Amino acid sequence: MAVASKLTSLGIIVFSVALGLLSYYLMNDQSEKQKKKHVEEVISQLVNFVIFIWLAKIILNVGVFITDPLVVLAYPASSNAFYLAVLLSALLLFYKAKRKQLDMRSFMETSLHTFLVASFVYEFFQLVWNGDEYAFGYVSVLAVLLAVYFLIHGRIGRDRLIIVMLTGWTAGILILSTLQPFVAVFGYMVEVWFILLFYMISLGLHIFYQRKRGYNGN
């Protein structure tokens, strides 16, 4: 029963992300070659993130892993493992951007679109299918963010769009954290300090890329 529940949850995540990527591909007006490249980069980073999740589980439970590795690998990842995986992913993105192996602005734009759509689909499943009452607040926040995103997309510069949506998502999560016992992102409970750190790291990466490209404010 537990295995079936885990597989169902994983299936919902995969389905949600797939819809997010498909939505980006269908709604973006760039060339087919560019869209394919951006989607492939996001998928590559998602694969890296999954690897980092497994690595984080091992690092945080190294003593148990040495004696019984199967226990650690079979056990669901904790929020701490999720935090560490996000940090490792950020470091990898910074490294790739610094070596000009990644177009950070395009990656963040693609990731933002995918994340918002995938998160909405995932949380909607949690609300309707699993009856998770705490998902309602996050679904509402995501619905507002998606409405704003599609309303202003193409009307303001990509850099400003990314900053507006990052700030809006962070503000929404912080407000939710004061209204309910916890907030979960794809099933992982997130603390206020992590949300603020994630916002600063994301904004820092974006500003770093802007300066590397000689950002002129447009």
Automatic annotation (TrEMBL):
The keyword Membrane applies. Keywords: Membrane, Transmembrane, Transmembrane helix. The chain crosses the membrane at residues 6-26, 46-66, 72-95, 107-129, 135-152, 161-179, 185-209. This is Uncharacterized protein. It comes from Virgibacillus sediminis. The lineage of its organism: Bacteria, Bacillati, Bacillota, Bacilli, Bacillales.
